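Q: What would this complex look like in 3D?
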Amino acid sequence: MELLFFVQVLLHILGGIAGFLFEQHGEKANRVTHGLAVLASALGILFSLGILFTGGSWVLELQGSFPVGALRFVAGPFSAFFLLIISFLSLAASLFAIGYTREFQGRKSIALLGFFYNFFILAMLFVVTVQNAFYFLLFWEIMSLTSYFLVIFEHERPEALSAGRLYLIMTHVGTAFITAAFLLLYIHAGSFSFDAFRGAAVTLPPVLKNVIFLAAFIGFGTKAGVIPLHIWLPQAHPQASSHVSALMSGVMIKTAIYGLLLFLFNFLGAIPAWWGSAVLAVAIFSTLLGVLYALMEHDLKRLLAFHSIENIGIILLGVGMALVFSSAKKPFYASFALIAALYHVINHATFKGLLFLGAGSILSGTHIKDIERLGGLIRNMPWTAACFFIGSAAISALPPLNGFVSEWLTFIVLLLGCEGASPALRFFSPLLAALLGLAGALAATCFVKAFGISFLGKPRSEQAAHAHEVSGSMKAGMGILAASCFGLALAAPWIVPILGKVAKTLSGTDIPMGAMVRKSFLISPSESSQFSPVLIALILSAFLVGAVIFLRVLLGKKIVRICPSWDCGMPGLEPRMQYTATGYSKPLRRIFSFLYQPTRRVELEDEGHAMLRTAQRFESKITHHVDEWVYKPLSEFVAVLSRKAKQIQTGHIQLYLSYIFITLILLLFFFGGRS
Amino acid sequence: MSPELAASLIHFFGMVLLIASFWILASSRIGTCIRAYATHSFLLALITAVIAVTNHVEHLLVPAILTLILKTIVIPQVFFRIIRRLGIRKEVESCFNIPFSLLLAVLLVFISFYVTGDGKILKPVAFSEFIPLAVSTVFFGMLMMTTRKKAISQVLGLLLIENGLFLMAVTMTFGMPLLVEMGIFFDVLVAAMIMGIFVFKIRDAFESIDADDMTVLKG
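A: Here is my prediction, written as structure tokens for the whole assembly.
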């Protein structure tokens, strides 16, 4: 079985390099590099499914002469779960890429794109399997750097470069914190190996434990894009090519969840009570602010990026409750919370991947990112529209799609907080559930906007009117993900036990599966509620079929009349008469104006008289508070510091030499002076 | 040669060596500077030879001869050629005037005696009195590199540092293995050549060998 993994790795390496053997800008390079990635991912899916179903694990240890311990890979159920997500999404994304990167042909080096793409996937695969802190950081860094190069792949656009720079800075700040956390663990455990960390977890002193927790949470939180560490995410994800955005949003930020779970449940021993509350606080802020900012965003990919922040928040709600239950000694509830979080990890990967690929299809069909200029695409791009619709419904947590299942689980977990947590949380966790409900409703609003404005109505621009449907491989890429949005929902009673296995390797407690799954029903641990995705799907489709039959049989065809719609007495409907995205989201901008603090500017031009208007310009902006309050002062502070530091950089070679000279003399005084 | 005589001979040469170091710093013309460096290297060769003879470490004779040939004759000749071709007749330009740099040098000698006095960082096997001398030679080289303006003086400073390190190696441990010594000599020779070429290149690029002009390279 391990042969599958070796071949997967080999194929990714080959795929990364082989593109250069052919004409770099041509179709052959595209087929080879992305085709090999598809093959590799398919093998990866088989490998990880094998581990998940048999419950075994795969170990590879390479002894090296490097003094940091052996390079050890282990793929147990927990790693295999993440391997599965990575391979699964990269399968769809690579398929999609075969068609999508055709637009770069002759313009950019596709071999180079494929190189970074393949090694990006490879680095993620290694990150979730490696068992040594040093190599973990190495692969983590490779993952960050390759994704940076993918972000700036279209470097002729200045916004790609500046987004890339921001990403590079933020990801290294995060890596610095992760490194600090690992080094503190290393000092305590005396080895870089994860097993040593696990062994030394019980003896961690409380202060050190809290410091490591904070460092890891900040470090991995930066990668995951939790508010307030999110600023790079809505900038960088939209700048990459869409299939890469899908991977970054769908999988890369999940590697941060992997690392965080590893730290919280494996390396740090018993969990203090306040960690759960801290994680929950950050999670609920990310959830709400993520979706609220997404609502005001009219660039499709940026909108999706903000939704990634929201969904990371939802995942962390599950993780936070797992922490709360662990510290309250409720292992069964904790495992249930972990299952909810892990379920949302895979669901978010699926539907966010699908939505990003859909956005990529729109981009390749129209070359427009701004939804205010789209419209009516459903006629020219029916496949894309269907897939995007499924993705939208899934992310809005509508049954019978997968988003609903994991959000239902998260709700149950939050409501369980009433009985299993400290008094304060007994009060707050239902509140969190209510806020999660609000976030779900807002997400639905946002996707009504995103789908409605882009696909329905009349085209608002020339490009949108002449959009064309995407090629077969792109449809296939989206189709796989759309189908699995259904599959992951309907198969929930079979998936939950597997996730139970994964959660068991983390929390160490056995979960009585009989208490959680009965036939096709998922049951909450307190037996207070249960639901069956299959049954819901059946009821909903029965209702749908019933409605169709009812209309057909009772009313026949006679009710269909084709006539012009009423146009208020104007001569014909124009695209300008439609709802705009700005207009649609206006009520929410009003309701949440305390948060958005919108500013608007209206400019009127006329020819000498107010009645003779020639042009009007309207501009509306919202305030991103975190940017304003945290990052602006911070960047100014850094700039001031750098200017100060620049003063010692005169460029005189003698001065640099004398720095060395003076340092040497001071060191000699310090270590060698007469005692 | 009796051991006492040898010891006092070595100490005498050591003193002269220190004086030669001062001479390098004190000379106001580049030509004199190079001559002083040659003298310094000559004394170094003498010290090495005496140690080799009196302590019966004959392999030290090889570095002694090499020092004599390379550092006393070849490298100074290279430098003379460079200054002839560059047409430098001017005095040595320094950030401080010469009396002040001599004062600094005296201070550095004190420092080197102070920091190496109790053998805490450097534990000698043979001539513990030479350690402060070697360290102060290194300091002088650094002082030369930091205060002089012409690129050629900086090269001289680097070579002076090398002399100091060599002195330390010879007096503390009776020299390193022969192979290492040979490698170091070869390195020094090549370094002198390369830096000579660089001085020409710097002149070509900036039309002077004033290191201050290199501030334009700053970003």
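A: To summarize the key features: The helical segments of chain B are 3-26, 30-54, 61-86, 98-116, 130-147, 151-173, 178-206. The interface with chain A takes residues 95, 111, 114-118, 120-122, 135, 139, 142-143, 145-149, 154, 211-212, 214-218 of chain B (CB under 8 Å).
Q: Very helpful, thank you.
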